[in-house]
Amino acid sequence: MGAILQSLGRTVTAGIVLLIIIAALAGALSGQGARFDMAWWTFFMRWLHIVSGVMWIGLLWYFNFVQIPSMPKIPDEQKPAIGKVIAPTALFWFRWAALATVVTGVLLALMNSYFAPALMLQRPFTAIGIGMWLALVMAFNVWFIIWPNQKKALGIVQVNPEEKTKAARLAMLTSRFNTMFSLPMLFFMAAQSHGGL
């Protein structure tokens, strides 16, 4: 077990294998088994959407609840480890999880034939439509405000110290904006299918 858990790749692979085994057992116990019809593929897309969203919002909250508040407490000589190693890796997963969440969400909406009505906030898709718009604004912020400014703040793109400070502040404020938006976004995403409205 130790060999599996010491490697992220092996851990994720083991998680997928475990998922398949448990799903097969649950299907056998229920007597239904796996039916790879459109309903199953729609469910699978919803699962991918949820997994991507958990990664995206989890990293957003990590930045805002853990990393940003902790930075003033970290001794200056240790800060380069955050800026050169941890933050770039976290930002890689953060931005690609945001894109994966949007792509799987669009595919899910298309598979369920509510993409256009939701974007136009038509009934009965008003709640999911509001959630979609909030998520789209957040994803735009990730790719076109947070990431370009973080590249300056982290020294990936070389700028003068004043611009670096300004970029770090704009990235942080936009990340806080996304944290604020994440709460209503998650509410409206869940409200559509779980009776929140």
What does this structure look like?
The protein is mainly alpha-helical and 197 residues long. The protein has two domains: 1-34; 37-194. 81% of the residues lie in helices and 0% in strands. It has seven helices and no strands. The chain has helices at 2-5, 8-30, 38-70, 79-111, 115-119, 126-153, 161-194. It starts with a helix and ends with a helix.
State the gist of this model.
Helix content is 81%, strand content 0%.
Q: Biggest sheet, in brief?
A: none
Structural class: mainly alpha
Coarse shape = flat
Number of strands: 0
Strand coverage percent:
under 5%
Number of alpha- plus pi-helical segments:
7
List its traits:
mainly alpha; 7 helices; flat
Topology:
Elements lengths: L1 H4 L2 H23 L7 H33 L8 H33 L3 H5 L6 H28 L7 H34 L3
Helix pairs in contact: 3-4, 3-7, 4-6, 6-7
